[in-house]
Amino acid sequence: MISSPPKLRDELEVIRGMDDIPLIFDPVTGNYHRITRAGEMVLTYLDGTRTRDDLVVFLSRADQERAGAVSRQIDTFLAALDRSGLLEGSELPDKPQDGSRVRTSMLMPRIILTRSLPRLLEPVAAVLRAVPATLLVLIAALGALAGYTFGFHTLFTAMPPPQDLAGPAFLIATGVMLLYVLMHETAHALVAQILGTPVRGLGVALLFYFMPVAYVDRTDAYRFRGRGGRVALAMAGILSDGWFCALSGAVALNSAGLLRDTAALLLGMQLLMLIVNLNPLMPSDGYTAIEAATGLTNARGRAFALLRHTVRRQELPAHLANLSKVARRGHMAYGLFSMAYVCFLAYAMFHALPVTVDLALSAVGR
Questions:
Q1: Which distant-in-sequence residues (6+ apart) come within 8 Å of 224 by Cβ?
Q2: Backbone dihedral region of 110: left (phi > 0), alpha (psi from -120 to 50 degrees) or beta?
Q3: pLDDT, tens digit, for every residue of 115-163?
Q4: pLDDT tens, 23-37?
Q5: Nearest 5°: phi and psi at 365?
Q6: Sequence-ordered strand ranges (E) for the chain
Q7: Whole-angstrom Cα distance, residue 219 to residue 27?
Q8: Can you say whether the dihedral through the CA atoms of 288, 294, 297, 302 is positive or negative?
Q9: In a 3-state reduction of DSSP, which class is residue 53?
Q10: N or C terminus of the chain with fewer C-beta within 10 Å?
Q11: Per-residue confidence (pLDDT) for residue 31, from 0 to 100
Q12: What is the pLDDT of residues 63-99, one digit of tens each?
């Protein structure tokens, strides 16, 4: 029920998120609610001193011609706030019980494994905060680049053919890879802790209800507005993977037998993981980094809409027609790169499928 006069709940917080978009944070449910900039302005008047009619008169500047449109907009806005439980007297939406570790969605149920990461990572984060941020990023990036270069050079030049990497090495490498994925997510959590926006939990999601995917809940990353920090947060996992890639390469070069075979398989899995994490067509770490660096949202959708209208020689919609030449060229380049990426990925998967099947069958003795 909407209070009269309408009043925003006192504990709510209005912040700015990516692309400078206004958000309302509800500390009771832990949810963020996106609003327009015009809605943000209206919120300042929802202090319990003005009725709904007072708001219409005030915002329409007593202009009778505008009053009708403003009235409908105010009603829609207040109704949306009420449905979300953001007004005094409105019913709070259902939320998981405190301590619940399982959340479901249409295609990806999630299981929280631990909420203790902020407490565990804070001692390390406190030490790293004392290091200049630029130096910290430079060391992480250069180490990752060197690690990927060394690891993949080892994979393609000093390892036996994939067909020879049979037996238990495949199962062992899969287990170690799960540990690497855990460290990948922990790296995101560590950067979030350094930035003062701790993750809410570490867990496992079941993509399409059967494919396990590790994740950390970075919902509160909205609070950090600096683009550099957001890029670092998005790329933290990829950079940590580069260091572990160097470790796998070093083991592969300095060992033999089962240990070498396991390390070689790990390098192949890490290459696949890098390809997935740089996927420009999914909400991957690479795509998130691009959005954070440019301050844009839905860059992928804009790029493909621009390509589609250009190829069909159709008139561009207003949001695309108003793009600057530089922005338009950037979106076109992004769309073309995405198409080239898909072609490359399809080619690689086609050639790797027989070898992958052979390795899987050999791991179970067939």
A1: 195, 196, 197, 230, 233
A2: beta
A3: 888 999 999 999 999 999 999 999 999 999 999 999 999 988 877 766 6
A4: 888 888 878 888 888
A5: 80, 25
A6: 13-16, 22-26, 31-34, 102-103, 110-114, 202-207, 211-216
A7: 12
A8: negative
A9: helix
A10: C
A11: 83
A12: 777 778 888 888 888 888 888 888 888 887 665 544 5
Q: Tell me the two tokens of residue 13.
A: 């917080």
Structure tokens at 215: 């994740």
**Arithmetic mean of pLDDT, 218-236:** 84
Q: Report the distance separating Cα 135 and Cα 128, nearest Å.
A: 11
Contacts of 336 (CB under 8 A, 6+ apart): 307
* Backbone dihedral angles phi then psi of residue 22, each to the nearest 5 degrees: -70, 140
Domain ranges of the chain: 13-94, 96-289, 296-366
Q: Which residue pairs, CB below 8 angstroms and at least 24 apart, start in 188-191?
A: 188/216, 188/218, 188/233, 188/236, 188/237, 189/117, 189/118, 189/121, 189/216, 190/121, 190/124, 190/125, 190/128, 190/236, 191/229, 191/232, 191/233, 191/236
pLDDT band at 1 (very low <50, low <70, confident <90, very high): very low
What is the Cα–Cα distance from 38 to 116, expressed in whole angstroms? 39
pLDDT computed for residue 29 by the predictor: 80
CATH of 13-94, one of 2.40.128, 1.20.1070, 2.40.290, 1.10.10: 1.10.10
Structure tokens at 321: 């027609």
d(CA 47, CA 57): 16
In whole angstroms, what separates CA 327 from the centre of its chain? Answer: 23
**By the 8 A CB rule, do 2 and 87 touch?**
yes
Query: Which residue reads 């030490």 in tokens?
Result: 127
Rg (CA), the chain: 25
The full length of the chain comes to 366
